[in-house]
Amino acid sequence: MKLIFARMAIAALMAAGTAGAAQAADHEIRMLNKGEKGMMVFEPAFIAAQPGDTIRFIAADKGHNAETIKGMLPDGAEAFKGKINEEIAYTVEMEGVYGIKCAPHYGMGMVAVISVGAPVNAAAAQAVKHPGKAKGVFEELIGHAVAAN
Asked: In the β-sheet with 88-91, what is the strand arrangement from edge to edge?
């Protein structure tokens, strides 16, 4: 009898662990020379995610990277910096807005926003200064994050 209860407890724990893992999603963002919104873009440029989701930056075209922007991360979130022409995967853990750039094409507006749960740091992210076209693109993308909540 004890063996049956032990097996049932183990099965319940395994099912709970599997259910948690099944909830996490994978999202892909392609780094492109030309996309639907023009030249030098992340596609899509906006992702709505949940804590535990993984974002994969796909090097679809050469000459790009993906990296976080100082001041555009939720408190406690870890920054990352991918290498040029390299795919990178990043798991988002904290709720908030994550600002991403392609370093060589930042001023051209090659930026993205990942919104995880509530955009708790949206005001701080909006206050960050950006070069060239990136400013307008970020205004639109952070607006999506705020409007979604």
From this structure: 38-43, 26-35, 54-58, 88-91
CB 73 within 8 A of CB 99: yes
| Residues β-bridged to residue 48 | 115
Q: Considering the entire predicted model, what is its pTM?
A: 0.84
Mean pLDDT in consecutive groups of 10 residues from the start of the chain, 149 residues: 42 46 86 96 97 98 98 97 98 98 98 97 96 97 89
Long-range contacts of 37-42 (CB under 8 A, 24+ apart): 38/109, 39/108, 40/64, 40/102, 40/105, 40/108, 40/109, 40/110, 41/109, 41/110, 42/66, 42/100, 42/102, 42/110, 42/111, 42/112
Taking the CA atoms of 55, 59, 61 and 66 in sequence, report the sign of the dihedral they define.
Answer: positive
